[in-house]
Design brief:
Distance between the termini: 49 Å
Helix content: 25-40%
Strand content: 15-25%
Structural class: alpha/beta
Length: about 250
């Protein structure tokens, strides 16, 4: 039986650009989740076979596929998805990552229990070809604003946010870490995030992305601190934690 829009619990947002090799795995991991959901796929004007891959799933009425008229960037695409979302919660997933089948159910249960506005899960790293590495990036049961300043432990593909809250903090500032700014703003205004310390997110480590360029990522992180209103000494203080954690996380 077709679900009614008012019964949707989670709106899953996948921004995609030229990701024909991976998008099917991401979509499949959403459709097997054991919660009432809609899947909003925002295609940022791909010019490869992404459209054909997505359309092969569109018989499923839970899927909404929107194409940008021109390339606008990932922040614009996620914001468009947030505007269209009909669920109580929004969950983000990048097109080259995927979830374990129980991810959304566990996260919803946690957020309902804690009356939380934001949560995330742990993640297991995989290489560019999808081979799992066994490297588990853990997350604490609670993450405070000050703790998050020491390093962005809330990976976007693991995050779930109360929709009414998410819409107050649209992503912007593509020259920085736009997702990190959003999480920090939410924690500053609403309190702690909650974590599920299980590798329910399978995270693909890609070459050539903003986060894979360590020097550029460091520059953007320092820019996030300044954007959030930290003075120079505060920014340097938290940046030291970020740098140390960055080394420990991957090595």
């Amino acid at each position: 039986m077709e679900q009614r829009m008012e019964d949707i619990l989670v709106s899953v947002i996948i921004p995609v650009y030229n990701c024909e090799k991976y998008i099917s795995e991401a979509i499949e991991s959403v459709l097997v989740q054991d919660v009432s959901l809609e899947l909003i796929i925002i295609d940022d004007h791909s010019n490869d076979g992404t459209k054909e891959q997505v359309q092969s799933f569109c018989r499923d009425k839970r899927i909404r596929y929107i194409c940008n008229e021109k390339n606008k960037g990932v922040a614009f695409s996620r914001n468009k998805g947030m505007e269209l979302a009909k669920g109580k919660y929004i969950a983000f997933l990048d097109a080259d990552d995927y979830w374990t089948p129980d991810k959304l159910k566990h996260q919803v249960d946690l957020m309902e229990e804690k009356q939380a506005v934001i949560s995330s899960t742990g993640r297991e790293l995989m290489d560019e070809h999808g081979n799992l590495t066994g490297k588990f990036i853990r997350i604490k049961e609670e993450v405070s604003y000050k703790e998050l300043l020491k390093g962005n432990v809330l990976n976007t593909s693991g995050v779930m946010v109360l929709t009414s809250v998410a819409r107050k903090y649209p992503m912007g500032h593509d020259h920085l870490h736009e997702d990190y700014i959003m999480w920090l703003s939410i924690l500053r205004d609403y309190g702690n995030a909650y974590g599920i310390n299980e590798p329910m997110l399978k995270y693909r480590v890609m070459q050539g992305t903003k986060s894979s360029n360590k020097l550029e990522s460091a520059r953007m992180t320092f820019g996030v601190y300044r954007h959030m209103g930290l003075n120079l000494w505060q920014s340097c203080y938290y940046f030291c934690f970020y740098a140390i954690r960055g080394v420990l996380k991957y090595y």
